[in-house]
Design a protein that fits this description.
With 159 residues, this protein is mostly helical. It is built from four helices and two strands; from the N terminus they run H-H-H-E-E-H. Helix content is 26%, strand content 3%.
Length: 159
């Protein structure tokens, strides 16, 4: 996870998990929303496609809902990057509706398609974020505004 790697590189403490927060805990230094076994796709997708569902219903949309609930206590403005107007859940590389993901058609196979501009997408293949997303996350942590105060300058500039 990006946050843990950056924290370790700078010798910072790990962020508390959203699900382990206690009432009134100070979250202004950050929180992680990651959950073991979480998927990018909602449980409904697996059920509709008659696929074995994941062991948990902690999909990306659930994690985003956690963030939306917590955001007012973290910052006061609505400015984001995470791209302009895009389909948040649609994968850049894959095949099938509604999310461009089919567990039988992998990214890179002859049947899959790739979006025109991956830098305008968050999700790469239904399981991984795009490089543009990882860069923006790391940049926000290292240079701000996701770290308060911003971390010291890294050895290289994050593009």
């Amino acid at each position: 996870m990006v946050v843990s790697i950056v924290a370790e590189a700078y010798g910072l403490p790990m962020l508390p998990s959203y699900l382990n927060l206690s009432k009134g805990q100070d979250v202004r230094q950050g929180v992680k929303f990651a959950f073991v076994g979480a998927t990018a796709l909602d449980m409904d997708y697996f059920i509709q496609k008659i696929l074995i569902p994941p062991s948990t219903n902690i999909s990306l949309s659930v994690q985003l809902d956690w963030f939306k609930k917590l955001k007012p206590s973290l910052c006061k403005n609505k400015q984001g990057f995470s791209f302009g107007k895009i389909d948040t859940f649609k994968a850049c590389c894959g095949k099938s509706e509604p999310y461009n993901v089919d567990v039988h058609i992998f990214c890179g196979s002859l049947a899959s398609t790739v979006c025109f501009d991956p830098s305008k997408h968050i999700n790469w293949d239904g399981a991984h974020l795009t490089e543009a997303t990882y860069r923006l996350i790391a940049k926000g942590i290292v240079e701000g505004p996701f770290a308060s105060p911003s971390l010291k300058s890294p050895a290289f500039k994050i593009a």
